[in-house]
Amino acid sequence: MTDRKILAHALTRDAFAPFGQVIDREGEPTPINGGKARRFDSGAFAEVSGDNARVGIGLVYATPYKFPLDLRMVERHPLGSQAFVPIEPARFLVVVCPDEDGKPGAPQAFVTGFGQGVNYFPGTWHGVLTPIEDAQSFVIVDRRGDGNNTEEFHFDEPWEIHLPGMTG
Description:
Helices cover 2% and strands 48% of the residues. With 168 residues, it is mainly beta. A hairpin with a 4-residue loop joins strand 4 and strand 5.
């Protein structure tokens, strides 16, 4: 059996680039609303395709997971991107897998910084929304419309995800 332990790393734009975009306040803001607000454009764009496709915006309330985490399943959305933006300033785990001939390859894990969100490219294998410390609310931006936009893959053996600083 191969080593199925994965250590999560800090989420960075470069490391996450093959899977999507990081949403955060990095870069030079644009003043708006008469200088009373600053807009940070992360370079993330919602993408949708298929019959009656449209961009949906919703809220999700998710409860925290225990670590180390047994990763048994990942999913992907072939007809649209999917973004998770935290409302509270809390960290969450992001798990992604490269596509290997229609199946997920070895997972990679990231821990977001406070206030960071992610936007997965269409067709990107990823773990479920995984708060770390406390229950958390998120804005979700994804595809709505006709057709099946969710594929799940269940691993034969789970992957064990560890957070930085964990022992074991």
